[in-house]
């Protein structure tokens, strides 16, 4: 089938490559000329493991093209995916301006039946809204062209985009007509996944409910971690024991310095706002936001408890992206931590396998190590913000010999506590500090 994907961010690129891989003909569209030029040269503008060679292969086979012209891309297309950003507005709602712009442009160029697919994360009712925008444009042109708007939310995790899209847990299809449902099922017939057929409004809610539930799970274990610290209990053991119950499951129970990224914070906020708009206070979501906001403060308090005043102390942060295997620093906990540590007067050095430069652009006053070993030189404490494998696998004996102190604050509970203690570190993990009973 001939497909157009609008937006070449994480979701657009993943949609384009995964559909290209199962044999469809893809046109990727973006208003960002530099991105389009890079992509046409087989260069991936983001860091996402494994995706670049797939793009290069599809370009070579002629199955994938990128352009800045939506009009050109739309010629003969059967399906258009809208995969543009929906960033958070200052009042907490998602900004739909990119979706609106794209819908208007589709309406300006459409001449025959097309299925328009909302891939972006958008509030309940947006499929109907997009439909009304396109209809309005057609009316201005004096045309009456049939079309459908489908909600097909994306569930990929950054850093695992390729494996998620090749073998998703489920594909949610919110269709308002049988024709659209048949088109979408044909599109995905070669992807082996559960297919949940439902209405567009239900599909839109499934996306927000899923992200908010995952954020709830993380926040629950983070709050448990705070209690574990006060009662001499190890939260890692607790999560392990809880996760063995199939009804709970082991995933998203890793306590840490809070969730970040471009989606959980904005989507929890958007769902809370959706409730507020119909006069329903989403009390669980409100608590989650508050607890997550305070997780870095709580963490910093524990650092101060161990090290005393931080003024003039040399602290190295390892792992700066919001999670491993991505260069994305949107809402990364490291940003808040750096800001707070600088405000306390600490001297900060940072290192991340791929995101160091992005952090340096935001905080020009901090030092960036060329590698983890040079970053820890003379540090009095090391803080793990992101559990990159190459950070976990460092030679910790060498790290200790390079440091000027012995504190290690494991903000992701990712390191081997016993091994580090044997190497002479004072190890502190989130909710696993058994030496304190109140
Ligand atoms: N990043 C992720 O892992 C996931 C994101 N989502 C959702 O998917 C959507 C997209 O997210 P990302 O890919 O992270 O966004 P992004 O911000 O990385 O990329 C969006 C792209 O859309 C382009 N764009 C904006 N207006 C355009 C227009 N009029 N025409 C063509 N291109 C245009 C931008 O230039 C940019 O390249 C959001 O709603 C997000 O919540 C959903 C699941 C996972
Ligand atoms: O809508 C989205 O954009 C996506 O949001 C998340 O994916 P992502 O933000 O890429 O990353 P996650 O792996 O979910 O991690 C999010 C944050 O939670 C933190 N986290 C995750 C798991 C955990 O156990 N503990 C924990 O603190 C991570 O460190 C990270 O900061 C969801 O997992 C995806 O299903 C969804 O498609």
UniProtKB/TrEMBL annotation:
Binding site residues for NAD(+): 30, 35, 86, 121, 158, 266, 330
Active site: 263 (nucleophile)
Domain of life assignment: Bacteria
Keyword terms: NAD, Oxidoreductase
Record carries keyword NAD: yes
Pathway(s) the chain acts in: Nucleotide-sugar biosynthesis; UDP-alpha-D-glucuronate biosynthesis; UDP-alpha-D-glucuronate from UDP-alpha-D-glucose: step 1/1
Signal peptide: none
Protein name per its UniProtKB record: UDP-glucose 6-dehydrogenase
UDP-glucose/GDP-mannose dehydrogenase C-terminal domain: residues covered: 316-417
Top EC group: oxidoreductase
Binding residue positions for substrate: 155-158, 207, 252-256, 260, 323
Keyword NAD: yes
Catalytic activity, reaction form: UDP-alpha-D-glucose + 2 NAD(+) + H2O = UDP-alpha-D-glucuronate + 2 NADH + 3 H(+)
A GO molecular function held by the record: UDP-glucose 6-dehydrogenase activity
Entries under NCBIfam families matching the protein: NDP-sugDHase
A Pfam entry, by short name: UDPG_MGDP_dh_N
Family matches, as SMART domains: UDPG_MGDP_dh_C
Family: Belongs to the UDP-glucose/GDP-mannose dehydrogenase family.
Annotated EC: 1.1.1.22
Organism: Paenibacillus anaericanus
InterPro entries: 6-PGluconate_DH-like_C_sf, NAD(P)-bd_dom_sf, UDP-Glc/GDP-Man, UDP-Glc/GDP-Man_DH_C, UDP-Glc/GDP-Man_DH_C_sf, UDP-Glc/GDP-Man_DH_dimer, UDP-Glc/GDP-Man_DH_N, UDPglc_DH_bac
Any one Gene Ontology BP term: polysaccharide biosynthetic process
């Amino acid at each position: 089938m001939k497909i157009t994907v609008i937006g070449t961010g994480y979701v657009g690129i993943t949609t384009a490559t995964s559909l290209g891989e199962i044999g469809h003909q893809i046109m990727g569209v973006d208003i960002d000329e530099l991105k389009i030029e890079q992509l046409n040269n087989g260069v991936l503008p983001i860091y996402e493991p494994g995706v670049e060679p797939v793009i290069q292969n599809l370009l070579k086979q002629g199955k994938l093209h990128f352009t800045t012209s939506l009009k050109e891309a739309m010629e003969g297309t059967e399906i258009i995916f809208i995969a543009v950003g929906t960033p958070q507005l200052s009042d907490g709602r998602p900004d739909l301006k990119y979706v609106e712009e794209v819908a208007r442009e589709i309406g300006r160029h459409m001449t025959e039946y097309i299925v328009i697919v909302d891939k972006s994360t958008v509030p309940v009712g947006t499929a109907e809204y997009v439909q009304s925008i396109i209809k309005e444009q057609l009316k201005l042109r004096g045309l009456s062209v049939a079309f459908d708007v489908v909600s097909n939310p994306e569930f990929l995790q950054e850093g695992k985009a390729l494996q998620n899209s090749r073998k998703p847990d489920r594909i949610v299809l919110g269709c308002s007509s049988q024709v659209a449902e048949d088109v979408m099922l044909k599109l995905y017939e070669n992807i082996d996944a559960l297919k949940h057929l439902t209405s567009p409004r239900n599909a839109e809610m499934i996306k927000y409910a899923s992200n908010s539930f995952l954020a709830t799970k993380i926040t629950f274990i983070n709050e448990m971690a705070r209690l574990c610290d006060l009662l001499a209990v190890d939260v890692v053991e607790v999560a392990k024991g809880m996760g063995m119950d199939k009804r709970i499951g082991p995933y998203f129970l890793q306590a840490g310095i809070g969730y970040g990224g471009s989606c959980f914070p904005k989507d929890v906020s958007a769902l809370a706002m959706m409730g507020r708009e119909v006069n329903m206070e989403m009390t669980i979501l409100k608590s989650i936001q508050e607890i997550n906001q305070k997780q870095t403060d709580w963490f910093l308090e524990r650092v101060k408890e161990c090290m005393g005043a931080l003024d003039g102390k040399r602290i190295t942060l390892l792992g700066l992206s919001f999670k491993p295997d991505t260069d994305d620093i949107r809402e990364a906990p490291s940003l808040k931590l750096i800001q707070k540590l600088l405000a306390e007067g600490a001297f900060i050095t940072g290192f991340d396998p791929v995101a160091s430069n992005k952090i340096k652009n935001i905080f020009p006053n901090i030092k960036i190590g060329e590698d983890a070993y040079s970053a820890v030189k003379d540090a009095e404490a090391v803080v793990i913000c992101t559990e990159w494998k190459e950070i976990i696998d460092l030679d910790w004996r060498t790290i200790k010999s390079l440091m000027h102190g012995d504190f290690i604050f494991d903000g992701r509970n990712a390191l081997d506590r016993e091994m580090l203690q044997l190497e002479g570190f004072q190890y502190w993990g989130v909710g696993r500090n058994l030496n304190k009973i109140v």
